[in-house]
Amino acid sequence: MSKLYPIGIQNFEDLRKKDYIYVDKTALIYQLISTGKYYFLSRPRRFGKSLLISTLEAYFSGKRELFAGLEMEKLEKDWIEYPVLHLDLNTQKYDSIEKLEGILNDALCRWEDIYGSRESETSLSLRFQGIIRRAAEKTGHNTVILIDEYDKPMLQAIGNPELQTEYRNTLKAFYGALKSCDGYIQFAMLTGVTKFGKVSVFSDLNNLMDISMINRFSEICGITEEELHRYFDDDIHTLAEKLGTGYEETCTRLRLNYDGYHFSFKSSGMYNPFSILNTFANMQIDNYWFATGTPTYLVELMKQHNYNVEEIEDIVTSGPVLDSIDAASTDPVSVIYQSGYLTIKGYNEEFENYTLGFPNREVEQGFFRFLLPNYASVSVTKSPYEIQRFVEEVRKGDVDSFLSRLQTFFDDIPYELAPRDREMHYQNILYIVFKLMGFHAEVEYHTSRGRVDLVLKTSDYIYVMEFKLDGTAEEAMTQIEAKGYASAFAADRRKVVKVGVNFSSETRTIDRWIIS
């Protein structure tokens, strides 16, 4: 019988009854249930948060039969059925406060049909509190509250401060029921992509334990190296045959493309479950996770604050920055990290600082591919082909065609940008282009005020390039000669090509180049 991969299946009962493959996380779930009461978990999209919530719902609903053969079956003895209030905020486009209120009202109406209502409960938060109490009183067991994607409305309003404030005030009061109804609650868990902190929805929920960066729960979502081989080893062998590669090389390719997520500084690397399942279902390696959603709001934040794209490669920051997003702040680092585009690469215990980087090739390449048409004058559809043409031109030594094509990428740099911002924008475009070329050719890239220098290597050529801002192409070439940049490759069999380029802030593009 062929294996069934639960791609897009987020309902635990459906998954188990239809015999989809399930990576057993129930021992960790039992530990979660047994050692605490209120939890928050942040994980990137499509990382298994909804399935985790659904598994908790099945457990607290006393559905023992769904856990047959799993670790939970050995651990749990009582299997009590609790009233469960499950709210999923992932099902709506939140472009107005009415949309949010409509979703909350619909959930409350469904619960009130079961547990009743009172006329005095005139607000959303009062109705929620009343339902929690009546559910416990009616069933004789305290209420379980599971909220999936709690932050979806806040994320969708990240560029709209007024709307975000409305969402924050509504959700803050609504979620406040978790604190006021403590005596009627058995267990509560909120999940989301991000954690909004300080004066935001969490400011009153100081009873929530945030396990997002706790090492003992770091493997609760995603797939570990051990789980990959325990559940999918035969799939790896089949994939190796399909790709015409050996088993070890296939493992290396899977690791390069999909592994590398670290949710605490001591945690082992986690594979992206969505990409792994799709890879084995389709028996080919592709950019599955990145294709399901684009980081539009992140790019808007980066452009709005003229963020230096090059810095994203080696960010060093503190735990509090990663731990939550201040709704009033516009620093994109915490949002980029919590959204799954960056992960923990290292930790300095003395200074308590984290080093961030891209988790794997799928995310890194996908991120820069998405950035290019958002910064340069190139369409989304033409962008991948333009990079291909760039690489083909430098491989055959056609520098003029390469620079002519690059020249067109600067056509839409806004006039209103201040000179310093314009320089950053120009450097960002160059960096993104050469970063994407770096997946197919060796690129060393360095920047400083008013200049960019780089070395680009192909099988036949070594290009030593100097870019000046508001200088001359001759000055750029003089710099190459004076600094002896090319002398390091004197013994190399490949042809060394020196290129001096000047970028004019007045014309907002490359105005001249010299090739030697």
**Strand line-up in the sheet with most strands:** 2-3-4-1-6
Helix content: 40-55%
The total of helices stands at 21
Largest sheet: 5 strands, parallel
Uncertain ranges: none
Mean pLDDT: 90
Net shape: globular
β content, as a range? 15-25%
The beta-strand count equals: 15
Distance between the termini: 64 Å
SS-based class: alpha/beta
Rounded Rg:
27 Å
Description of the molecule:
This protein is an alpha/beta fold. It has 21 helices and 15 strands. The protein has helices spanning 12-17, 26-35, 49-60, 71-75, 97-115, 124-139, 152-156, 161-175, 177-180, 225-243, 247-258, 273-282, 288-291, 296-304, 319-323, 333-338, 361-375, 383-395, 399-408, 419-437, 473-483, and strands spanning 38-42, 84-88, 143-148, 185-192, 196-197, 209-210, 315-318, 325-326, 343-348, 353-357, 442-448, 451-457, 461-469, 495-504, 509-515. The strands form 4 sheets. Strands 2-3-4-1-6 form a 5-stranded parallel β-sheet, with helices on both faces. A hairpin with a 3-residue loop joins strand 12 and strand 13 (461-469). Helix 18 (383-395) runs antiparallel to helix 19 (399-408). The chain is globular, with a radius of gyration of 27 Å.
Task: Quickly describe the structure.
With 516 residues, the protein is an alpha/beta fold.
Fold blueprint:
Blueprint: H1 12-17, H2 26-35, E1 38-42, H3 49-60, H4 71-75, E2 84-88, H5 97-115, H6 124-139, E3 143-148, H7 152-156, H8 161-175, H9 177-180, E4 185-192, E5 196-197, E6 209-210, H10 225-243, H11 247-258, H12 273-282, H13 288-291, H14 296-304, E7 315-318, H15 319-323, E8 325-326, H16 333-338, E9 343-348, E10 353-357, H17 361-375, H18 383-395, H19 399-408, H20 419-437, E11 442-448, E12 451-457, E13 461-469, H21 473-483, E14 495-504, E15 509-515
Parallel strand pairs: 1-4, 1-6, 2-3, 3-4, 5-8, 13-14
Antiparallel strand pairs: 7-10, 9-10, 11-12, 12-13, 14-15
Helix pairs in contact: 5-6, 6-8, 10-11, 17-20, 18-19
